[in-house]
Structure formats: structure tokens, C-alpha cells
Amino acid sequence: MNNYHLLIVHFPIVFAMMYGLVEVISFFKKNQNAFLHECAGWTTLLGTISIFVAQATGEAIEHGATWSTQQKQMIEVHSTLSGVLLTIFIIGLVGYAIDWTLTNKELFRNYFANKQTISKLLEIKISIFTKVQPIVSSRQLRFLLGIASVLVVTAIGALGGAVATGCATDPATRLICTFF
């Protein structure tokens, strides 16, 4: 399982960096760009999935090896920050899912037109989403989530590198190790 984590962990890193880049570009563009919006939506979906897989393989490593006290402390912070990154991605994913649902609400209405109960529930869902969308889909929140994802994944990577290769590997890992 050890090797799997080392392979899989790079996917969330790429998705977090890409998500941050797309959100920063989107924030500074005057006009909303549909391509960037779609790209960020798919990035949050794939990033969320990859974070779950990386967490599962990381847990297997954590409990399947012997660690020094310093490494255990770093692993705990690494794991906690992974949860923070997952939360960032889930918030972003919810915003994009709401956007997608409201954009395609007529498709849903047509599909469920003959199903009375589902149709009523759909209208309630659309009503709630319409009220929540300005909050979870605001450009400012998405910008902050994008910046946060880059900062958090950078700290996660430095901690992972410090655990795997030691504290003298590079300036980021040396800085991280000063806290432990």
C-alpha cells in the first residue's frame, strides 16, 4: 500500500494547483468564461475523488509502519491538512453542482414531468439552490478557495516530503520541520 500512496498523492496536488490557478484567472477576468467554469467544476470533482483515495492509502501507510515521534506529529498535521483540503474541494464542488443543476433545471423538469412527487421535490430543491447559489458560487469565495487550496496543498506536500525523505531535503521541508 505504501507505493500506492506515493503514486496517487500527486493527483490531488495537481488538481489543487490547477483549481487555484483556474479560480485566480477567473477572478481577474472581466467576463465569466464558460470554459474556465467547466474546468473548475471538473477539477473539484476529480480532486475530491483523488483526495479520498490519497487519504485512504495514506491511512494505510500511517498504520502499517513504525514512525519516530517527530514523524508521527508531522503525519497527524499532514492528515489534518488533508481533511482541510478535502473540505475546500467539497465546498467548491457543491457550488459547481448547484450551478450545473440550476443551468440544467429544464432538463430535470422535463425528465421528471410525469412523476408528481419527484417533480415537487425537484421544485423545492431548485428553490433552495436558487437562494444558496449567490453564497456558494460567489467569485470572491471561489477565489479564496482557490488560493487556500494552493497554500494547503503546499503545506501538505512539504510535510509529506519531510516524513518520507527527512527535514534537510529542501527549504520548504526545513521550514516545516522547525515547527516540530
Structure report:
The longest helix has 35 residues, at 69-103. The protein has helices at 2-8, 10-28, 34-64, 69-103, 105-111, 116-136, 139-165, 171-177. It has one domain (2-177). 86% of the residues lie in helices and 0% in strands. It is an all-alpha fold and 180 residues long.
Strand count, sense and barrel status of the largest sheet are: none
Domain count, please report it.
1
Q: How many H/I helical runs? A: 8
**Shape type:** elongated
**Distance separating the two termini:** 26 Å
- Low-pLDDT regions: none
Helical percentage: over 70%
The total beta strand count reads: 0
Radius of gyration: 20 Å
Strand content: under 5%
List the helices and strands and how they pair.
Elements: H1 2-8, H2 10-28, H3 34-64, H4 69-103, H5 105-111, H6 116-136, H7 139-165, H8 171-177
Helix pairs in contact: 1-3, 2-3, 2-7, 3-4, 4-6, 4-7, 7-8
Short note summarizing the structure:
This protein has 180 residues and is mostly helical. The chain is 86% helix and 0% strand.
